[in-house]
């Protein structure tokens, strides 16, 4: 037990002290947040209101959109506020943002694996798709995704929050993350680093392996398609998905799966923009809005909206003299 002045709030440095650069970054991050929020909310509303989209694939897309909303709403509003107001955050606020961000990060990694497995069964084992991916299985997979990621973030947040912080309170990042916080602790962090490293290896590398293996089988199945047009359509879809998945996993692995002593926070926070802001903005476009079924559902919703907004005619009969129209003959 030592007499220490404990840190009660942190100063988030953000990206730059230069006012001119802040003016450029604010609209960029505001645009990313609006695109991510509106795109993912649109996906949730479209799938929820369209019975034709109540299938396993779109069920997982709703979960992915929910995760992206959670991630961006945890990070970007505070970042935007810090650009125009104070950049300090309380210790409790830091832990809260850390908790929800880590939760969304783990859930997104696991959801990519669940979605890849769903596509593998649909393409490689179509005759067994209904039995293997029934409603109960989908709910069980989604529940496991949220529960495992919640357990991971609870353990890491609790052990990180118990560390003493009695020196510098300057966080060289633009949001609350484990690596920059460990560098500020005035106590050994080897246990925390080992726990975070183990969780990241299991979640990131394990999910990445499952995803790549599933897509490898999918591509092998596509190569057996005799139609060249069918192969092009399938490869177009898979290439878009693989681009997003590879971008997300590569940045997460680069940031987390290495010793804390090798962190270069000035460079790492630029890489973090990919999985906190760019990927949630691209996911609705890549996974959903390029899909013909989703576009058809969007057209139906827009047509219903126009029908509701169209002016209605008089309630009385249009015949002169108030005469009623003769009854129509009913079909047998």
Automatic annotation (TrEMBL):
Spans annotated as Disordered: 309-332
Localization of this protein: Cell membrane
GO cellular component, as recorded: plasma membrane
Keyword set includes Signal: no
SUPFAM superfamilies with a match to the protein in the record: Family A G protein-coupled receptor-like
GO molecular function terms attached to this record: G protein-coupled receptor activity; olfactory receptor activity
Positions of the G-protein coupled receptors family 1 profile domain: 39-287
Predominant location category: membrane
Family from the record: Belongs to the G-protein coupled receptor 1 family.
Function: Putative odorant or sperm cell receptor.
Name of the protein: G-protein coupled receptors family 1 profile domain-containing protein
Gene: LOC106841098
């Amino acid at each position: 037990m030592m007499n220490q002045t404990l840190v009660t709030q942190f100063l988030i440095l953000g990206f730059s002290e230069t006012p001119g650069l802040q003016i450029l970054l604010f609209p960029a991050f505001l645009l990313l947040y609006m695109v991510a929020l509106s795109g993912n909310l649109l996906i949730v509303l479209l799938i929820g209101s369209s019975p034709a989209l109540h299938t396993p694939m779109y069920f997982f897309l709703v979960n992915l959109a929910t995760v992206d909303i959670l991630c961006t709403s945890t990070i970007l509003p505070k970042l935007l506020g810090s650009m125009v107001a104070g950049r300090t955050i309380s210790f409790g606020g830091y832990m809260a943002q850390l908790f929800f961000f880590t939760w969304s990060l783990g859930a997104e990694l696991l959801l990519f694996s669940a979605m890849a497995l769903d596509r593998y069964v649909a393409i490689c084992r179509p005759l067994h798709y209904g039995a293997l991916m029934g409603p109960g299985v989908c709910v069980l997979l989604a529940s496991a995704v949220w529960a495992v990621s919640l357990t991971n973030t609870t353990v890491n947040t609790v052990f990180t929050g118990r560390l003493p912080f009695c020196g510098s309170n300057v966080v060289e990042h633009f949001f609350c993350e484990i690596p920059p916080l460990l560098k500020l602790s005035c106590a050994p962090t080897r246990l925390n680093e080992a726990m975070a490293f183990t969780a990241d290896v299991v979640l990131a590398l394990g999910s990445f392996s499952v995803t790549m293996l599933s897509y490898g089988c999918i591509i092998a199945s596509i190569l057996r398609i005799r139609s060249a047009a069918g192969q092009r359509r399938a490869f177009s879809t898979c290439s878009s998905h693989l681009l997003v998945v590879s971008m997300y996993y590569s940045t997460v692995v680069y940031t987390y799966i290495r010793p804390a002593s090798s962190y270069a926070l000035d460079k790492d926070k630029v890489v973090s923009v990919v999985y906190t802001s760019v990927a949630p903005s691209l996911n609705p476009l890549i996974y959903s809005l390029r899909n013909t079924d989703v576009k058809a559902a969007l057209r139906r919703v827009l047509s219903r909206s126009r029908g509701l907004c169209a002016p209605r005619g008089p309630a009385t009969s249009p015949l002169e003299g108030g005469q009623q129209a003769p009854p129509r003959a009913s079909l047998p």
